[in-house]
Design goal:
The protein is built from eleven helices and 16 strands. The chain is an alpha/beta fold. Strands 2-3-7-4-6-5-9-10-11 form a nine-stranded mixed sheet, sandwiched between helices. The protein has a five-stranded parallel sheet with strand order 14-13-15-12-16, covered by helices on one side. It has a two-stranded parallel ribbon with strand order 1-8. The structure holds threonylcarbamoyladenylate and magnesium ion (MG).
Length: 336
């Protein structure tokens, strides 16, 4: 296994790895497990390594509009052109009708393809030189929190991946916004580019789709029906309107002994820790943007050694929508 930094990268060597197999790459959102969309063996290896169900399609990364045109069917819808002009390269993925030559392994048999242009100059250079789009889901085992630094992905895949490209801490820390205007405009996965920004840009109302129910199949965004982002140990989300979560934590753990308790604290989540014997607090941030960027890191950090982790909800402003989406999907238990 080789770990190379984006600072001294030999692009040609990276291309050689891509010809053979998968590579872990940094993006501005989270790290991705990446393979050329034309390398079917490597694509299948993505599913195997991530333990990803075969009906969950792969998001495609491109480095240019010309490359985008090779994977979609028909013209770029005019609403998408506005988004692309303003936000690409950047953390928003767009759903298109798929070109017939896109592998069914990528689309999981759907007639659509999800595409984005990542805001990472090294990755854009790699895609450009390779001259092939990259299928790149988040570089975590399915169901685990997405990786916002290289160590998270090494923790999940270890020696099973032969090349890891280290680009440091991901700037955004949560995955891209997923947006579709194939029928009505809808955000399928919220992130930092939020509903207000898109409504302003497109001068239309946009809905946001959530799907927290694992048993209810989701015909538009199949991946959303699986358990997401969860730490291995218990994660409890407190949705009460209070800054101090001490009483809720006390009530919740009263009937069961936990050796170590983790708290993901933030501006709306504090604890009078003197009451508990063995507690570790990880501070997520003093605004929604900081919390978005640190959430997965905090979950992974505490998950290593806490038996139960608590946090409380945030307001839905700006990145708050995305934060609440991820927290609710990760939670084993929500206190309402
Ligand atoms: O920021 C990101 O989007 C990261 C980085 C690495 O680019 N990638 C990422 O990929 O989050 P992934 O696979 O973890 O999440 C993509 C989501 C999945 O829920 C998947 O089901 C959905 O997008 N998706 C992919 N292709 C789709 C399609 N054709 N139709 C509907 N949903 C699709
Ligand atoms: Mg993912």
């Amino acid at each position: 296994m080789k770990i190379v930094s984006t600072d001294n990268l030999d692009i040609q060597t990276v291309i050689e790895y891509f010809k053979k197999d998968v590579v872990v790459i940094p993006t501005e959102t989270v790290y991705g497990l990446s393979a050329s969309i034309y390398n079917e063996e490597a694509l299948l290896n993505i599913f195997k390594l991530k333990r990803r169900p075969a009906d969950n399609p792969l998001i495609v990364h491109v480095s240019s509009i010309d490359m985008l045109k090779t994977v979609i069917d028909g013209d770029i819808p005019k609403e998408y052109s506005k988004i692309i002009d303003k936000y690409w390269p950047g953390p928003i993925s767009l759903l298109f009708k798929a070109n017939k030559n896109v592998s069914k392994i990528v689309t999981a048999g759907l007639d659509t393809v999800l595409v984005r242009m990542p805001d990472n100059s090294t990755v854009l250079e790699i895609i450009n030189k390779l001259n092939e789009p990259l299928a790149t889901p988040s570089a975590n085992i399915s169901g685990r929190p997405s990786p916002s630094c290289i160590q998270h992905t090494i923790d999940d895949f270890g020696e099973d991946v032969h090349l890891y490209i280290d680009g440091g801490k991901c700037r955004v820390g949560l995955e891209s916004t997923v947006f579709s205007y194939l029928s009505t405009p809808i955000i399928l996965r919220p992130e930092g580019i939020c509903i207000e920004q898109l409504e302003d840009l497109l001068s239309t109302n946009i809905s946001v789709k959530y799907n927290f129910k694992k048993d209810k199949p989701d015909e538009i965004c199949p991946g959303q029906k699986y358990k997401h982002y969860s730490p291995r140990n218990k994660f409890v989300l407190i949705m009460k309107d209070t800054e101090d979560i001490t009483e809720f934590v006390k009530d919740f753990i009263s009937c069961k002994k936990f050796a170590k308790i983790g708290i993901l604290s933030h501006f709306n989540c504090k604890i009078r820790d003197k009451q508990f014997s063995n507690i570790e607090v990880y501070f997520l941030g003093s605004n929604n943007k900081e919390i978005a960027s640190n959430l997965f890191r905090g979950l992974r950090k505490l998950d290593g050694h806490c038996d139960i982790i608590f946090t409380s909800g945030v307001s839905l402003e700006k990145e708050g929508e995305a934060v609440m989406d991820r927290m609710k999907k990760a939670a084993h238990h929500i206190i309402k």
